[in-house]
Amino acid sequence: MSDEPQQRPTRPIDVRSVGREHVRVDGRAKVTGTAPYAVEHDLGELLGRELPLLHLWLVTSRIAKGRIESVDASRALAHPGVVHVVDHTNAPRLQGDDEPELLVLQTPRVSFRNEIVAVVAAESLEAAREGAALVDVTYAEEPFSAELTDSTPTYKPDSVNPSMPTDTEEGDVDAAIAAAEVLVEETYRTPFEHNNPMEPHAAMAVWEDDPGGGSRLTMYDSTQGVHGVRSAFAPMLGLEPEQVRVLAPNVGGGFGSKGVPHAPEMAVALTARALPGRAVKLAVTRQQMFSLTGYRTATFSHFRLGADDEGRLQALEHRVVEQTSRLKEYAEQTASPTRMMYAGPNRRTSHRLAMLDVAVPSWMRAPGEMPGAYAQEVAIDDLAVRCGLDPVTLRERNEPEIDPDTGKPFHDRRLVECLRRGAERFGWADRPSEPRSRQEGEWWVGTGVAASSYPMMAMPGNTCRVEALHGGRLAVSIGAVDIGTGAWTVLTQIAADALGCPTEAVVLRIGDSDLPSASVAGGSSGTSSWGSAIVAAAQAFREEHGEAPEVGAVTTAAAEENPEKERYAMHSFGAVFAEARVHRWTGEVRVPRLLGVYSVGRVVNPTTARSQLLGGLTMGLSAALFEEGWRDPRFGHTVTQDLATYHVAAHADVQRLEAEWLDEADTVATPMGSRGIGEIGIVGSPAAVVNAVFHATGVRVRDLPVTPDKLVGQL
Amino acid sequence: MRPFDYLRPDDVATAVRAVADDPDARFLAGGTNLVDHLKLGVARPGLLVDVRGLPLHDVEVADVGGGTVLRVGANVRNSDLAAHPVVRREFPAVARALVSAASAQIRHQATTGGNLLQRTRCVYFQDVSTPCNKREPGSGCSAVEGFARYNAVLGASPECVTVHPSDLAVALAAVDASVVTDGPAGERRLPVAELHRLPGDAPEKDTVLEHGELITAVELPASPVAQRSTYYKARDRASYAFALASVAAGLELDGDVVRDVRIVWGGVAHKPWRALRAEEALRGERFSEEAVLAAADAELEQAETSPGTAFKVPMVRGATALVLGRLAGGGR
Ligand SMILES: Cc1cc2nc3c(=O)[nH]c(=O)nc-3n(C[C@H](O)[C@H](O)[C@H](O)COP(=O)(O)OP(=O)(O)OC[C@H]3O[C@@H](n4cnc5c(N)ncnc54)[C@H](O)[C@@H]3O)c2cc1C
Ligand code: SF4
């Protein structure tokens, strides 16, 4: 790790494996159940010594706001198997105050219901759980506010996620609206949505004090970024980054909820700190995930669209109201797609937040883009209806020549091609223009379309090391994390092509913060960011060590920042087509067909890419029809906190689901020609489904999800 | 969870005595509901008496009181019962209700007796941090002014507004099935439609069974309405969701005149809701969609809704029209 990385430019790679199907290199281990996840590891084995293991269980607050008056752990400690209870009175102290969400058990303050107030460590899972039930906590409760309504007071945040301007304005929106021939003025709402990866948030850690001074924290964590966890935790625990090692060889999904560390992981580190020399492990329960691991805020999008009688947009206004937690601000960038998607000389966007005494919201797949595009693409459908225009035609008519947001030219904006190709594949031409004009048996049938986009992102801070091993094999090391997306596979392919060797010769090492640093698996940026570093290191390695390197030859390099980034607005695009059937008697909605056509640059591996896009489409379908976290304002927490009441799409809901992409390579974006595919699938698909429901029934639902109660009785 | 003792007797008398003698004891069958409750802290028994060692595993055709009944042991798994040829042929509503419930894995584990006695899915009942009269009598009902999607529109009380979640119970009520029990007071037989109760001021009591009373079997009498019966479950997603509203119905037509009919609703009350007024309105009438809707409306005059539950009225009305329409059209 002493080798200073050189920043270097990259050349586009010659593709041999990249662009072809390659079976998942970790597939066999996963389907045979032998790939270990966070709490299935053996820390003792990793460290080469016997480590006693303790199970942890979280005690969470029963008030939404106030102070803990007392914690009585005596009954818990008397329970057989319970070893220790950590609470704010005896927890090791944490340093700094930048990360309030991670300052676990530091004060008696309670900032939201179900916040962690104690951790029980025991010799068995059952004892830990019963111990948690036996910890008696008393509180001094204070009045709180946990409800987001149209009249909740709001404020203007300084910026929105990740660091975008809060408001934008161009031209004279009010005048253009007043002069418009066709007007849409509606509010579109999305509910609280919760990430539910298969593997819950989970971690296992040991704290070891070196007799010679110095300490070390070693942690298996279910995270999207091992270096992110290390850099957040080390200073808070009073350690240097080198004293912290975070490993995540396999992660069972994250969708953004594991993009930054959350309180439960710190609770594990803290308990390890309190019990040096013992391995401690925690898997957050499904119910606790609804309070402790982030979620998407509900969003209210107040839209005004003004157009001429041919559907050309003259004014776009998107005013967003959403919420954040008092403990930590998180401002979802819901208006961001409105800033760049369509032409129109007069435009205004804004974000306002209600600050509530609630759990901390965070990233959920396509933050901002998903709820914002939902609102925008249904508003565009509303406009198409009012203009009497086909919604595909309306979108084509409003294609911008340059990015309306930055004023830069787009690089490779191929939305219209996606729309046309999709329309052809879907049989759009046969669609009746009037809604509610097709009935088949007990079902109303209709189709809908929506556009999608996702910004091309590449993160700084990625370094890769290439080292020659025996037998002609090459070790390629970078602390990237495969959260189930296929990173193990595609990074192997990229490394092989960049090195000019077969994939079998590549020994990929990822998922460990002792490896060269890597950015988070988030923002659809993983493959682009890590891949560019791999290409930089591989190309440098060949230049330094040639085609027949000595065993032990090593090169460490980072890709220099892409200079084209300043010249172009870079985005991926897509068009989603949906068919919806609505039951005439019950209002139940089924989606027999969903098709997405995407322009995402070169697809590195069609097998894993298809999974990402189909997964995104499915999550969009799920958001359109089912997902809704119902927060009870009297208590302050989400009461639909399991998978029987927080519905995600089941297999039977997913019928003919197809994703395809334009054949292209964007070597301006990355040396692999790829742009990123992790999130675009969930953008656009909710609106396509909702627009299809309108076309089927003539009933316009603007508040997600479109559950049967919103339709029954009107059919 | 609280540590508990575990018994697995192989005869009914021992099982009944073990539970009857200990107020802290509970029967355990497939565990798909009870084990969840142990983990959540909703149930904290000191003794579990596993009934799966009892000889209650058979499905047999028997003669009871002069008629033919299908006698289903309490331990018969939901998946086996759904696939049983006599059930599929003679009691299609029952087979359909079973396969509409839960997931294949859960149906493999869940038993006939356990299914009938599963407890409400009310979110407050399952969250021990919130008041709930059913879980903790006298603590209050959080659902009255809370999450209402699975609340009742018929027969609720201010003390409890939840619904019974079983699909099977609704279909069994529609085919005039009975439960057979063995308890401290001996054996008895009661109609499934009378097993569950309305909440009244004792919502902690789901059924009329006494502590220690074991369901040993369910008996399904063959009949024309049972043979021409079906089940429809309206729900948020296409599978693996509890009913927003469901209908089990049987129909016997004489030409186009309704000779006999059964209509039982699920998802709308604390028990399977036999729509007696609707049945009465249809019996002897000429079958038509309008007649069915008018009959459903007659029943629904008693409905009491809130903004969160108002949708159930048109939904159950529509589902009734749908189900009877299918039956009249010769479909199931
Ligand atoms: C995710 C999920 C989804 C589900 N979806 C549905 C659905 O859509 N529709 C539906 O109907 N159900 C659904 N269920 C519920 C499922 O059907 C029940 O959990 C199951 O039928 C219970 O049977 P069991 O044998 O596992 O009972 P257990 O959990 O063992 O017992 C349940 C109760 O019955 C008592 N008991 C069991 N057997 C007897 C007996 N012979 N005599 C007296 N008392 C007894 C026990 O003491 C306990 O109180 C779902 C469950 C889950 C977990
Ligand atoms: S409806 Fe019944 S089960 Fe639900 S909270 Fe009220 S009393 Fe409890």
Structure description:
The complex is a heterodimer of chains A (715) and B (332). By secondary structure, chain A is α+β, with helices and mostly antiparallel strands. Chain A has 16 helices and 27 strands. Chain A has a 7-stranded mixed β-sheet with strand order 4-6-2-13-10-11-12, with helices on both faces. In chain A, strands 1-22-19-20-21 form a 5-stranded mixed β-sheet. Chain A has a 5-stranded mixed β-sheet with strand order 8-16-15-14-9, sandwiched between helices. In chain A, strand 20, helix 13 (487-499) and strand 21 form a beta-alpha-beta unit. In chain A, helix 10 packs parallel to helix 16 (685-697), helix 13 (487-499) packs parallel to helix 14 (526-545) and helix 15 packs across helix 16. In chain B, strand 4 and strand 5 form a beta hairpin. Chain B has a domain at 224-328: CO dehydrogenase flavoprotein, C-terminal domain (Enolase-like, domain 1, 2-Layer Sandwich). Chain B has helices at 12-20, 34-40, 78-83, 85-90, 92-99, 104-109, 112-116, 167-174, 224-227, 276-282, 289-300, 312-328, and strands spanning 5-7, 25-28, 47-50, 59-64, 67-73, 178-183, 186-191, 214-221, 229-234, 245-254, 257-266, 273-274. In chain B, the strands form 3 sheets. Chain B has a 5-stranded antiparallel β-sheet. A 4-stranded antiparallel β-sheet of chain B has the order 9-10-11-12, with helices on both faces. Classes of the chains: A alpha+beta (715), B alpha+beta (332). Iron/sulfur cluster binds next to loops of chain B.
Notable characteristics:
heterodimer, A: 715 residues, alpha+beta, Aldehyde Oxidoreductase, domain 4, Aldehyde Oxidoreductase, domain 3, 3 domains, 5-stranded mixed sheet, B: 332 residues, Enolase-like, domain 1, 5-stranded antiparallel sheet, 4-stranded antiparallel sheet, 12 strands, 29% helix, binds flavin-adenine dinucleotide, binds iron/sulfur cluster
Structural class of chain A: alpha+beta
Quote the distance from N terminus to C terminus of chain A.
66 Å
| Helix vs. strand class of chain B | alpha+beta
Strand arrangement, largest sheet of chain B?
Answer: 4-5-8-6-7
CATH topology of the domain at 224-328 in chain B: Enolase-like, domain 1
Distance between the termini of chain B: 44 Å
CATH C-level label of the domain at 224-328 in chain B: Alpha Beta
Query: Could you tell me which chain pair has the largest interface and how many residues each side has?
Result: A-B, 39 and 35 residues
What's the gyration radius of chain A in Å? Answer: 26 Å
Per DSSP, the total helix count of chain A is: 16
Q: What's the story with the biggest beta sheet of chain B? A: 5 strands, antiparallel
Largest sheet of chain A: 7 strands, mixed
Give helix % range of chain B. Answer: 25-40%
Oligomer: heterodimer
Uncertain stretches of chain B: none
Number of strands of chain B: 12
Q: How many helical stretches of chain B?
A: 12
